[in-house]
Design goal:
The chain has 11 helices and 6 strands. By secondary structure, the protein is α+β, with helices and mostly antiparallel strands. The protein folds into 2 domains: 374 residues, Outer membrane efflux proteins (OEP) (Up-down Bundle); 70 residues, Single Sheet (Outer membrane efflux proteins (OEP)). The strands form 2 sheets. A 4-stranded antiparallel sheet has the order 1-2-4-5, with no helix packed on it. The chain has a two-stranded antiparallel sheet with strand order 3-6. Strand 4 and strand 5 form a beta hairpin.
Amino acid sequence: MSPRIFCSGFLGRHNANTLWVASFFCQSMSIYTHTKSFVASAIVLVCASVLAETPEALVKQALQRNPELNFFVAEIAGAKGAVRTAGTFRNPELSSEVGYKNSRDNSGGGSGDGAILALSVSQTFEYPGRIALRKAIANHDLAVAELHLQQFRLTLAARVRTLAYGISSAQQKSVAAREVVSRFQALSDVLAQRPTAGVTPQLEARIIDANTLAFQRQERDAALAIATALAELNQLCGHPADTPLKMASAKVQFYAASLPRLLSAARANAFDVRIRQVEFAQQGFKVALSKNERFPAISVGPFYSMENAIDRELRAGLGISMPLPLWDRNVGNIATSKARQQQAEASLAMTEREVERRVAQNAAILTAKRAQIDNLNGDELAKFREAAETADRNYQLGAVPLTIYVETQKQYLELVGALAELQKDALQAAQELEILTGLKLYGEEAQR
């Protein structure tokens, strides 16, 4: 039998003293239910506060320990090595000959044997400007590698922050679901001890049991969301996937920025645009290098040779060698590099338009979600929680029907989940805007 039905029937059959006793019993059950719910919530909050981590602390850990950072660090080291190689002269070449010579005069003169020795050293000199062009190309590779590292660091921080706040929101949903489950379980325990009379109390008891199962499923879903997010978060921070972690309860504040300001910042700071700009400039140096390579490199060096057969002969001098650019004028490489330059220019233009679109979309999302959060962040959540407690108390006193009681509890949980989803969407949009524009439109505020 429902407490409301039980109290109403009881009051209709007894005097004022009995009325006071029934009212006291129902209020006592309400106090017990709220006390049980409050204690459970307090235990969860206390446990979550012990050695709890904040999202920003986890971001710092990830930026120090994430193993994927080593890939980009190695890429920068490789680019620096390429810069050094591009500015290095070719090593000189040493050639030598040692042999035997037999000399005879066909007219019947003398003959003789002797040794032969020849040495030469040559140094290749590139055409003027060629080494500088190669260094410029290598420096642009280094700039691209550094931009990739900065972009990855921001992307990594955004992902860690999203997971951390997701765990915090899931913890809040779990606490709220546990509160509601405690209320329904308390009612179910009371109903199980009372004899039922009629169909209505039996149906109400089944409705309460069914909602208890539904709310328990929401609690388990929140726990599952915490577990799955925690596994990824641990690995991003360089920890084993099963490392336990407690998140400090925190919320995010979002700030407004005009779309023209965001677009202007994106044109100057977006990593994708900056990378394409560097690649386009680098391709210009590659075109200049392919044109420079039409002209040959020159090898210059001294030589010395000695022959000791009939007569001793010594030779010394300075040698110069170079290929003659008669057939290969590097026309094919010049055409290819110019085509690559046109592709780089087109890619830059497409990236700029893509970045502007993403900025506009994420700015619209952030504005809409921020407005909805501002409407709920006041006393709305506290009011709904108080309404859920009031509905529980008054239902046990017979002042609220079952439909209103159940709907109030559902709306409370839905509001908690809706606020968590709004914060998640707004945070993702704000972090995407940070990567695109360099402007931080959010801030962490610890809950008290």
